[in-house]
Automatic annotation (TrEMBL):
This is LPS-assembly lipoprotein. It comes from the Bacteria. PROSITE patterns: PROKAR_LIPOPROTEIN (PS51257).
Length: 187
């Protein structure tokens, strides 16, 4: 009986130690309301686009950051975006026009969207985060000109939306590290 009792005590002590360690854990949800990240995300302004790829990224970011409510008229943070895309084929076995193989079957291709962004605070201009995201989308390049152009455009849209998802997460992480604004109570 003493062995059984000592095993119970050891198990109980291990449980108490485990609970103590877990209670000290500082993990919390990224988008929790207690941290104010959702409110800060809705106060982000995105720069005006200069090309179609930037427009797709910006539109998706505005929707993701505000939850579909549109842009905030008084932003606290600003994101400057720059995006470009390149399309290329994966295989080197192509005909003269570089769109289909010699046997007229579609070849594999890829579209890469590269987005560079800078997150800064509006009131003092301090840069909080700056990075470049690259996303690749695979395509099949057809011998038909319109089908080729449409495949490239669809791949650019897919890659742009995926890049916007990554950027939103990175912006949310950067904003979660910002200190909470102090509430001033008045009588």
């Amino acid at each position: 009986m003493s062995l059984d009792r000592s095993l119970r005590l050891i198990a109980m002590a291990a449980g108490v130690i485990t609970l103590t360690l877990l209670s000290a854990c500082q993990v919390r949800p990224l988008y929790s309301e207690s941290g104010g990240v959702g409110q800060r995300l809705s106060s982000v302004e995105f720069s005006d686009p200069r090309n179609r790829i930037e427009q797709v990224v910006r539109n998706h970011l505005v929707f993701l950051a505000s939850g579909g409510a549109g842009e905030n008229p008084r932003p606290e943070y600003e994101v400057k975006l720059s995006a470009k895309s390149t399309a290329s084929s994966i295989l080197d076995i192509t005909s003269d026009d570089d769109t289909v193989t010699v046997t007229n079957t579609p070849i594999a291709g890829r579209v890469e969207v590269q987005v560079t962004y800078t997150l800064s605070r509006v009131r003092d201009g301090q840069v909080l985060k700056s990075a470049t995201r690259e996303v690749v989308s695979q395509i099949d390049v057809s011998g038909q000109t319109f089908a080729k152009l449409r495949a490239i455009r669809d791949a650019e849209n897919r890659a742009s939306r995926e890049a916007a998802e990554f950027i939103r997460a990175e912006i949310a992480i950067a904003l979660s590290r910002e200190p909470q604004p102090q509430t001033v109570w008045q009588k």
